[in-house]
Structure formats: C-alpha cells, structure tokens
Design a protein that fits this description.
- There is one protein chain.
- 75% of the residues lie in helices and 0% in strands.
- The protein is mostly helical.
- The protein folds into two domains: 4-88, Uncharacterised protein YqeY/AIM41, N-terminal domain (Hypothetical Protein Yqey, Chain: A, domain1, Orthogonal Bundle), CATH 1.10.1510; 97-146, Arc Repressor Mutant, subunit A (Orthogonal Bundle), CATH 1.10.10.
- It is globular and about 55 Å long.
Length: 147
C-alpha cells in the first residue's frame, strides 16, 4: 500500500497534468515541507510524520484566514480556506468528542488527577486524530465534574 508521501506526489503529478495551478502550488509546498521535516529528523518520514506536517499546514492556513478576515481581505481568506479544504482530504478522520471524553474518563478513573497528568495520558492516544484544544476543554470539563 503506497504511503501518504507517495499519494501526495502522485496527486501533484495529476494536478500538473490537469494544469490545476492552485492545487499544484499547494501540493508542491506541502511536499517541500515534508522534505524539510525529513531533513530535520534525519530519517525517512512515516505516515504519522506526514500527517503532522499536513496538520501544521492546515493550522497555519487557518491562522491566515483569521488574519485576512480581520484585515478585511475576504478574497485572500477564501483562498486560504480553499487550501485548508484541499489539505484536509489527506488527513485521517478526526476522533469525535465522545471518544475523547471516554478516554479522559478512563484516565481519571486510572488515577490521573489534574490537567497535566490527564492530558499526558490522553494526548498520545489521539496524536494527529484530535484537536489539542478540544481535548483540553474536555479534560477541564471532566475534572470539574469529578471534584
């Protein structure tokens, strides 16, 4: 089964052939980011590493959307939003809040108390599959109930 890096490269070639300039530029940028990450780590990337690069790209573009909206540049915000949508196609499905909530409850039941220990127990389970902000909010809610 081809890896995520191979899939990105194949889609870049397809976008070039279709003369889809926005997708070609976006995928070229992401592939360059993955190569830079590979150089940083000094080893071949796993699919999890590539997902991490994609998530950083999505996060960076979402921040740009906010900045452009605040500056009144709707056309640039729309372009960044479109890029977010294109990148999200390559990401694994996100874990739902209820799944995260049950993992948080299990960590609390196992004896973790306080935000740090619970986050430390839960975050590795959802690396790349759930937003850290949402996990933090769920942890705070569940710890508030257990006190």
């Amino acid at each position: 089964m081809p890896g995520l890096q191979d899939r990105l490269a194949a889609e870049l070639n397809a976008a070039r052939k279709a003369q889809d300039k926005p997708l070609t530029l976006l995928l070229g940028t992401i592939i360059a980011d993955t190569r830079n990450r590979e150089i940083e780590l000094k080893r071949p990337l796993t699919d999890d590493d590539v997902v991490e690069v994609l998530r950083k790209g999505v996060k960076k573009r979402r921040e740009s959307v906010d900045a452009y909206q605040q500056a009144g540049r709707a056309e640039l915000a729309a372009q960044e939003s479109a890029e977010v949508a294109m990148l999200e196609r390559y990401l694994p499905a996100l874990a739902g809040e209820e799944i995260v909530r049950s993992a948080v409850r299990a960590a609390i039941a196992a004896g973790a108390s306080g935000i740090g220990p619970v986050m430390g127990a839960v975050m590795p389970q959802f690396k790349g599959r759930a937003d850290g902000g949402m996990i933090n909010r769920v942890v705070r809610e569940e710890l508030g109930k257990s006190e």
